[in-house]
Queue: 2 jobs
Job 1
Amino acid sequence: MGRCSINPLVHVDPLGTFLIPMIQVFFPAMGAILIGWAKPVPVNPNNLRNPKLDDILISMAGPWMNLLLAVGLFGLAKAGLLLGVMPLAKFCVMSAILSLGLCFFNLIPIPPLDGSHVVRVLIGMSNETFYQFARYGFIILILILNLTPIPGWVGAAVMGAASIMQGWFGLM
């Protein structure tokens, strides 16, 4: 399907990447949490040599990439400071924090997020049970994000990780 690529354009979903986020930006009363998505990369579990471990590794690829991107962006922010390009430094720090937010958000163990696949494997849930649960994942996710302290915990994890990474580059 052409989505085994780091090119972001092949992952764009017109509805989830543009329309829904733009509606939420221009009409903020519709919801406090900005939600969007991209086309998923399809995975055929029959092609996996070690299905349990490989499923976890595949699920963790996105969050790990977000962490790696955050580290790179904090490094670029340091370079921007050293070169005296403050707008670049500020943009990179803000982008790194966004990347960390996506990383920790995706670790929430509710379908369709990556954390749900990891938890499914770790607790030994069958695929059939998982898919029955996943049918309601989006609704459960919206409820959890609006009615629990989880967004605060994600925010605390983001700011903690950002603080540590900024310390690595002397950006405090």
Job 2
Amino acid sequence: MFSFPMAPTKSERTRAQLRDIALRSFRDRGYDATTIRLIAAEAGVSVGTTHYHFASKADLVQELYLDVQERHTDAARPRLAVTSDLVERLRIVYATGLDQLGPYHDHAAEFVSAALAPRSSLNPLSADSAAARGITQSLFAEAVTGAKHALPTDLIAALPRALFLSHLLLALFWAYDDSDGQRRTRRLLDSALALLRPALPLVRLPLVRKPLVDLLALVGEVRS
């Protein structure tokens, strides 16, 4: 006996519409110009209805984070499937992440400013951002565990969070990169990965491994 999916309810359709309008507005108008009132007007619903589905603009930014990271995963996975080289797999995750951010570059500084405010729920390291952060860290974990390498187990366990933090730093550089197509950011990524490749064999040396694992553990404790 076949089971057919339930059609979305009116409430679910309204929520999806509000989300789509917000994501488009964030891309086209930026963070500052996108307001709950504007979203409600474009959707043809009341501000109260909009607040019923999304209590604040911050909730809609979290939807943006999720959308970007889900697209990031979808873009990276087919490319990860064709190589087992660790450095190339990391390059894929970083580069496809930048690709997904591309449409938001004109207004990126606005999002950075809002996210870096004290106690901001928009901070990528905040509890509110856990779902989007988890998607990205899982993608980095997939890149590492699916690669052909001889990294120690304790290092593998500590890497995904450190790689996520480096991804945030790269995105911060990208946000203020006014070069054509943000070419400076791409060059920075290429240079960093070029340094990483010859350094990888060294992490198996006891004199390097222990302090590196300790450093990664310390980095992993960073919170917003």
